[in-house]
Automatic annotation (TrEMBL):
<dbReference type="Pfam" id="PF00291">
    <property type="entry name" value="PALP"/>
</dbReference>
<dbReference type="InterPro" id="IPR001926">
    <property type="entry name" value="TrpB-like_PALP"/>
</dbReference>
<dbReference type="InterPro" id="IPR023026">
    <property type="entry name" value="Trp_synth_beta/beta-like"/>
</dbReference>
<dbReference type="InterPro" id="IPR006653">
    <property type="entry name" value="Trp_synth_b_CS"/>
</dbReference>
<keyword id="KW-0057">Aromatic amino acid biosynthesis</keyword>
<feature type="domain" description="Tryptophan synthase beta chain-like PALP">
    <location>
        <begin position="55"/>
        <end position="378"/>
    </location>
</feature>
<feature type="modified residue" description="N6-(pyridoxal phosphate)lysine">
    <location>
        <position position="89"/>
    </location>
</feature>
<protein>
    <recommendedName>
        <fullName>Tryptophan synthase beta chain</fullName>
        <ecNumber>4.2.1.20</ecNumber>
    </recommendedName>
</protein>
<keyword id="KW-0663">Pyridoxal phosphate</keyword>
<keyword id="KW-0028">Amino-acid biosynthesis</keyword>
<dbReference type="InterPro" id="IPR036052">
    <property type="entry name" value="TrpB-like_PALP_sf"/>
</dbReference>
<comment type="similarity">
    <text>Belongs to the TrpB family.</text>
</comment>
<comment type="pathway">
    <text>Amino-acid biosynthesis; L-tryptophan biosynthesis; L-tryptophan from chorismate: step 5/5.</text>
</comment>
<keyword id="KW-0456">Lyase</keyword>
<comment type="function">
    <text>The beta subunit is responsible for the synthesis of L-tryptophan from indole and L-serine.</text>
</comment>
<dbReference type="InterPro" id="IPR006654">
    <property type="entry name" value="Trp_synth_beta"/>
</dbReference>
<dbReference type="GO" id="GO:0004834">
    <property type="term" value="F:tryptophan synthase activity"/>
</dbReference>
Length: 400
């Protein structure tokens, strides 16, 4: 089975471009341009140079000895937390701003939840001397103050969004409204594998450097270029797409994705879109959407701002529907326990997003010979207030 995007922007039943008429030319221009740019020698050279010399790639593939002993297998951590700006998001923003420049765009907008994509976008805009506006839900502004200040320090204008539940979905709505008002000069750097075609494919291609490096690094460390398991957290799905991209058609590799279960699937406070969603259209693509019986989008909830989204990238919707990926809903407390466990065992404080895939480890049944690659999508600096609030909860933090 082919899990890649087709010429119309669909992964099986999911994907496409459902857009207002005012954006039709913008999206059509991008559809015509993106592959030509991505495959050009000048783009590849500039992109690879910036990834190496500016972002700090390749990111390490670290053998987590104590975590491996805990779970009875060989666990490697793909350390996206060690990139410049602290997450995988910089891989995508470097690529998209280079595309924007080649298309003659002069203004950049973005949405952000946890703030990592916003910081990465503000960073490349400072690098390229381009004005930048970042939309961020007011709820996320309050819980991710450090990243807000970083964006402002980098010269971006951060616009708090007060509609809906004031999180990632609402920030994306406002960014699209901005784009509709300024279609000629504005390039929208979308942070994940969501939105109208070609964004899901473009972001996946830019993030595919993750799995490209995993192949080379595993060959060096294990004498083979594939793992038995690939594991990643999934909200919109960009770090997961990058982790699995070069292994989609390799049936030797099992794919495990962890989405945000919030306070539980039946609690009414969850962001487990694959578990709870139905087919629908959100932000320009047909995918799985958390929605009411009459099709209104339900407000998601997660302790993690970056996973607090009522949709899912169409690539991942297809992987889940076809059974190519196993998807686990990991609740807040499981994620927090996973974060503290990694911190104590390996001295690595992960982002709350990454903590969800760590929280899935106790549910797995590995063999001693299994090679597992787990992507740590970001570092936990931005989430310290949440972690510190749990320090006196022994069921989460253990005995200090």
């Amino acid at each position: 089975m082919n899990y890649q995007v087709d010429e119309k922007g669909y992964y099986g039943r999911f994907g496409g471009a459902y857009i207002p008429e005012i954006l039709h030319k913008c999206v059509e221009d991008l559809q015509r341009s993106y592959l030509r740019v991505l495959e050009s020698e000048s783009f590849r050279e500039e992109y690879r140079t910036l990834l190496r010399d500016y972002a700090g790639r390749p990111s390490p593939l670290y053998f987590a000895r104590r975590l491996s002993e805990r779970y009875g297998c060989r666990i490697y951590l793909k350390r996206e937390d060690l990139n410049h700006t602290g997450a995988h998001k910089i891989n995508n923003t470097i690529g998209q701003i280079l595309i924007a420049r080649r298309m003659g765009k002069t203004r950049i907008i973005a949405e952000t939840g946890a703030g990592q994509h916003g910081v990465a976008t503000a960073t490349v805009c400072a690098l390229m001397n381009m004005p930048c506006v970042v939309y961020m839900g007011q709820t996320d502004v309050e819980r991710q103050q450090a990243n807000v200040r970083k964006m402002e320090m980098l010269g971006a204008t951060v616009v708090p969004v007060t509609s809906g539940n004031m999180t990632l979905k609402d920030a994306t709505n406002e960014a699209i409204r901005d784009w509709c008002c300024h279609p000629a000069d504005t390039f929208y750097i979308i942070g994940s594998t969501v939105g109208p075609h070609p964004y899901p494919d473009m972001v996946a291609r830019l993030q595919s450097v993750i799995s490209e490096e995993i192949r080379v690094q595993l060959q060096e460390k294990e004498g083979r270029d594939y793992p038995d398991y690939l594991m990643a957290c999934v909200g919109g799905g960009s770090n997961a797409a990058g982790t699995v991209y070069h292994y989609l058609d390799d049936e030797r590799v099992k794919i495990v994705l962890a989405e945000a279960g919030g306070e539980g699937l039946l609690s009414g406070r969850s962001a487990a879109t694959i578990q709870l969603g139905r087919e629908g259209i959100i932000h320009g693509a047909r995918t799985l959407v958390m929605q009411t019986e009459d099709g209104q989008i339900e407000e998601p909830y997660s302790i993690s701002a970056g996973l607090d989204y009522p949709g899912i990238g169409p690539l991942h919707a297809n992987l889940a529907q076809t059974g190519r990926a196993k998807v686990l809903a990991v609740n807040d407390d499981e994620a927090l326990r996973g974060a503290f466990e990694l911190t104590r065992l390996e001295g690595i404080i992960p982002a709350l997003e990454s903590a969800h895939v760590l929280g899935a480890l106790p549910r797995m049944e590995f063999r001693p010979s299994d090679v597992v690659v787990l992507t740590v999508s970001g570092r936990g600096d931005k989430d310290m207030d949440t972690y510190l609030a749990c320090m006196d909860r022994p069921e989460i933090a253990g005995n200090l």
